[in-house]
């Protein structure tokens, strides 16, 4: 935004006249500055109207021409030369150089003070800013109405028409979802370099083959829905940026509507899952809710447990993965683990869900999967999944560990023997869990890893990420607390069975 030079020339009270550089009259002035340095170029940013009386103007014709050339190279909009003080008229050398470079050269008569010219420019800039605010205040309601009736495409169209630019909305994968004029492609510009990086700036402006490109993130909090790009063949104004930001906010709110509803539904589903996995809901009621939610349970259910990182972020990632496959999320956090319900016999696999979630999280997780159960066996499915996830963590396995692959799963699958094993687990492992809770240690995990690696110190310590002497110390503490000899094969077998009935991510 600037003051057109033609507007300044029309101000009769200033009595300015054009001396040279008519081809540059299309330029706009962004600032007026009086300066009498022999070489003011290093202190100029471009777009200025430089006012001078030629007090320090060089005497040689060549040096005077260089003075104009340096100002033209600095990108000034025009030079206003005041006559009647240092010079009776504008030197011919300045006029010739201005004509040569296309730099506008104005004559400022003696009765016109430089401050009057500066004041005229500043007042006009202030008026333009106010006019821009008024213009934006009229456009924004239209844009809001467009969002209510036509969604993202209507907002994009209104923004493009209001700014006279091309606009395209790209989703989080970089695909064009809305554009105006129709057929507008993805612009090529530096603003798109690194646009998918986690630390991508909320907004950026750069130039490319298509012109000036302004890029604005479309986001609500940490959730990014895409980017809105505005492409123009001119310098963008503050009003352009204001409208671009408003449009991005409207599109973000539009994109949030279904997600907000999904979040609310996920909260309801989590409440049902808690009752299902705690065994406090009747199978018929659970079946009705799952069926209404579009969750197939004809072939039974499985529970997938994810350990590692933030369990709530893991639930969100799994939910997005399931949503892409038309499945609702039934998940909640159980003592640091994300537990998710999966339909048995469905096309989607636990490994696919886990891999997709890890790609979204960009963090390491370990997954365990229960065997197939009826709706009435939710607690058993949860225990199996948590157990398997704990085994996956101990092994450092990148693959989902299925409970059916673990030793002892047949015993824990029979209700009578399971009750016996749960009693054994409570008696044997309870002291370790109590000690861990009170001292911030991880003796249970260390014991499991030690037994899973057949008592091999080097392998077990590597899996745990500790020195073997540290593991020896932990195992010694376990033996002291349990009063058991881990060198005995019978003791190890008993503890492995107890661990198979213990909820490996902590007691729910």
Descriptive keywords:
17% strand, 17 strands, alpha+beta, five-stranded mixed β-sheet, five-stranded antiparallel β-sheet
What does this structure look like?
With about 500 residues, the protein is of the alpha+beta class. It is built from 15 helices and 17 strands. A 5-stranded mixed β-sheet has the order 2-7-6-5-4. Helix 7 crosses helix 8 (about 350-360) and helix 12 packs across helix 14 (about 470-480). It is elongated. Mean pLDDT is about 85; it is low at about 195-200 and about 505-508.
Give a short summary of the structure.
This protein is an alpha+beta fold and 508 residues long. It contains 15 helices and 17 strands.
Please outline the helices and strands.
Layout: E1 3-4, H1 5-10, E2 17-20, E3 28-29, E4 31-34, E5 48-52, H2 61-74, E6 78-82, H3 92-101, E7 104-108, H4 114-163, E8 166-171, E9 176-180, E10 203-208, E11 211-220, E12 223-232, H5 238-278, H6 283-292, E13 301-307, H7 311-323, E14 331-334, E15 337-343, H8 350-361, E16 366-369, H9 378-395, E17 401-402, H10 409-412, H11 415-439, H12 443-452, H13 457-464, H14 468-482, H15 489-501
Parallel strand pairs: 4-5, 5-6, 6-7, 16-17
Antiparallel strand pairs: 1-3, 2-7, 8-9, 8-12, 10-11, 11-12, 13-15, 13-16, 14-15
């Amino acid at each position: 935004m600037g003051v057109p030079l033609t507007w300044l020339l029309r101000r009769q009270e200033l009595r300015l006249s054009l001396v040279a550089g008519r081809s540059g009259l299309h330029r706009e002035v962004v600032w007026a500055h009086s300066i009498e340095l022999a070489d003011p170029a290093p202190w100029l940013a471009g777009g200025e109207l430089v006012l001078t009386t030629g007090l320090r103007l060089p005497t040689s014709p060549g040096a005077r021409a260089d003075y104009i050339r340096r100002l033209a190279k600095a990108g000034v909009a025009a030079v206003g030369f005041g006559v009647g003080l240092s010079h009776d008229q504008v030197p011919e050398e300045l006029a010739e150089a201005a004509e040569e470079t296309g730099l506008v050269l104005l004559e400022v008569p003696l009765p016109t003070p430089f401050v009057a010219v500066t004041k005229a420019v500043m007042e006009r800039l202030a008026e333009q800013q106010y006019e821009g605010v008024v213009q934006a205040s009229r456009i924004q309601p239209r844009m809001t109405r467009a969002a209510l009736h036509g969604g993202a495409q209507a907002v994009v169209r209104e923004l493009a028409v209001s700014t006279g630019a091309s606009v395209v909305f790209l989703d989080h994968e970089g695909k064009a979802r809305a554009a105006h004029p129709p057929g507008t492609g993805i612009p090529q510009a530096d603003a798109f370099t690194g646009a998918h990086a986690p630390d991508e700036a909320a907004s950026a402006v750069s130039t490319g083959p298509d012109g000036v490109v302004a890029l604005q993130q479309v986001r609500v909090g940490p959730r990014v829905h895409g980017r809105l790009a505005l492409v123009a063949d001119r310098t963008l104004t503050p009003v352009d940026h204001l409208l671009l930001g408003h449009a991005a906010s409207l599109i973000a709110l539009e994109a949030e509507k279904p997600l907000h509803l999904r979040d609310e539904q996920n909260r309801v589903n989590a409440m049902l899952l808690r009752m299902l996995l705690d065994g406090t809901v009747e199978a018929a009621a659970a079946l009705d809710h799952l069926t209404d939610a579009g969750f197939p349970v004809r072939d039974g259910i499985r529970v997938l447990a994810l350990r590692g990182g933030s369990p709530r972020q893991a639930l969100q990632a799994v939910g997005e993965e399931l949503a892409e496959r038309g499945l609702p999320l039934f998940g909640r956090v159980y003592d640091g683990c994300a537990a998710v319900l999966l339909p048995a016999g469905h096309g989607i696999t636990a490994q696919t869900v886990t891999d997709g979630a890890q790609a979204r999280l960009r963090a390491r997780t370990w997954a365990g999967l229960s065997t197939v159960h009826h709706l009435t066996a939710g607690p058993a499915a949860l225990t199996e999944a948590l157990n398997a996830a704990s085994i996956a963590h101990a092994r450092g396995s990148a693959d989902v560990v299925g409970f059916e692959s673990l030793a002892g799963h047949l015993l824990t699958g029979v209700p009578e023997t399971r009750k016996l094993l749960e009693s054994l687990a409570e008696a044997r492992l309870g002291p370790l869990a109590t000690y861990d809770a009170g001292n911030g240690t991880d003796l249970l995990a260390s014991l499991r890893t030690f037994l899973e690696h057949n008592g091999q110190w080097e392998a077990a310590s590597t899996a745990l990420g500790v020195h073997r002497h540290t593991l020896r110390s932990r195992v010694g503490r376990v033996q002291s607390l349990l009063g058991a000899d881990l060198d005995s094969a019978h003791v190890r077998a008993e503890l492995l069975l107890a661990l198979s009935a213990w909820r490996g991510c902590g007691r729910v």
